Amino acid sequence: MSTHDAISPFMLERYAVGELEGAELAAVEAALAADPQLAARVASMRQAREQFLADEPYAAFRIEHERRRTPAKQRLAFWLPTGFAAAAAAALLLLFVVPELDTERVKGSGVGLTVALVGAGAPKPLASGARVHPGDRLQLAYDAGDYGYLALIGIDGSGVMSVYYPEGGDVMARRSGESRGAFPFSLTLDATPGSETMVAVFAEQPLPLKRIEEAVRKNEVLPGVSAVRVVLDKE
Amino acid sequence: MDNSDERPDLRALYERYGHSVFRRCRYFLRTDDDARDAMHEVFLKAVTAYGDFRGQASPLTWLTRIATHYCLNVLRGRKAGWHERYAQVTHVAAQWNEPSQAQIERAELVHRLLSRLGRDEQEAAVYYFVDEMSQDEAARACDCSLPTLRKRLRRFIEVARKELKREDATLVFGEAPV
Predict the structure, then answer these.
(1) pLDDT value at position B156?
(2) How many Å is the Cα radius of gyration of chain A?
(3) Exposure winner among A112, A131, B45, B126, fewest CB in 10 A?
(4) Are B19 and A11 in contact (CB < 8 Å)?
């Protein structure tokens, strides 16, 4: 029912991926030298592996791996019902403690995004290009100017885009009350290497989030929309 | 690959073994989409359990075992998928490196019979009859002794023969090969 030669197909596969050593390696190499069919089979295995990597490259695999490893909900580790009061209090503190000068602004539009590192002590404002680390906790605040609707989009180092705000629904959130406010959660950075980009988007109308994501991805300027981008350098 | 680190080099692991894991998942689950999904889950489990792997000789055996366990669990959840027949042989053909017709049919028969076996026999049958591991290799992959492996394979052969007899009562079998 089975061939089960001295050199099993499984051992050939181990040889093809380069994990054999010592006596096993010597046995396979001797068998390959004596049997052209066996050598052809190894060549075929290697060719199939190369084709697989061409079809399913590591870069694409890595993006999906990170997405599965760190679902977007887990990234909002501190946006929990029981932690809401603490998060809101930290956000309010951020509004009053972080100097206005540390807000990233779009000239002429009146909108801005403040990103600050929070933890022990006063929040530390972070400008674009600032260094951050996995596990750092960030608090974000916005100035929506005259715009009535907003959203917050994040893009991690592997290119995975997540809508951080609003959490649910298909359209942008309506701004309530004052033009300045804080997002009611903090973000804990995961271990994905590379830049961490936060984009606050402000609009006159409640646009679909899918459209906003597309525009952010393409760096597209939409009528009646203004966006502020802060890019952090994660080590 | 450096096994001394608790965290594997994901790129090295994927580029070396991704194809083997994908192919195994494709054998069990039958579609590229399902296989891709399973492959990701297998690598997630592998990364999480990398500490358990330290000191073992063969990453391929280790990943093969994780993939086999994962896919058998998926199939157990599906149930209905077990009744696929030889019509799907052509799909399996693409998953082997120039396999012979006998190899394809054997793999297909094993796939078809798995639902009638316990988990241990399932695993042993796949390693031995589909992967064509030697008995030593299959015993290592199953993490059992050689006599235990042989017992599981004999059980598989017994079930396989009953199934074949049901389709063709005139069949006569020789001595079991294990």
Answers:
(1) 84
(2) 26
(3) A131
(4) no
- Closest CA in chain A for residue B40: A65
Distance CA A190, CA A138 (A): 12
Alpha helices in A98-189 (DSSP H): none
Q: Are A87 and A184 in contact (CB under 8 A)?
A: yes
pLDDT at residue B151 greater than cutoff 70: yes
Number of cross-chain residue pairs from A and B with Cβ atoms under 8 Å apart: 82
Element (H, E) at B120: helix B119-125
Residue range A131-151, pLDDT digits in tens: 888 888 888 888 888 899 999
Query: How far apart, in whole angstroms, are the C-alpha atoms of residue A12 and residue B29?
Result: 24
φ/ψ bin of A22: left (φ > 0), alpha (ψ from -120 to 50), beta (otherwise): left
Range of the domain at A152: 71-234
* Cβ atoms of A8 and B134 closer than 8 Å: yes
Tell me the residues of chain B between 63 and 102 that have a Cβ less than 8 Å away from chain A.
Answer: 97-98
Distance (Å) from the alpha carbon of A11 to chain B's nearest alpha carbon: 7
Domain that holds residue B90: 84-170
Q: Which of B9, B37, B36, B39 is nearest to B21 (CA)?
A: B39
Q: Helix B146-167 to helix B135-142 angle, to the nearest 10 degrees?
A: 100
Q: What is the ipTM of this complex?
A: 0.74
Give yes or no for a contact between A145 and A110, defined as CB atoms under 8 angstroms apart.
Answer: yes
Is position B109 within any domain?
A: yes
Q: Is residue A64 included in any domain, yes or no? A: no
Residue A217 contacts B where some CB pair is shorter than 8 Å: no
Residue B130, SS3?
helix
Taking only the tens place, the pLDDT of each residue in A215-225 is: 888 888 888 88
Q: Considering its fold, how many domains does chain B have in total?
A: 2
Kindly state the tokens that stand for B64. 């093969």
Contact B59 A68 (CB under 8 A): no
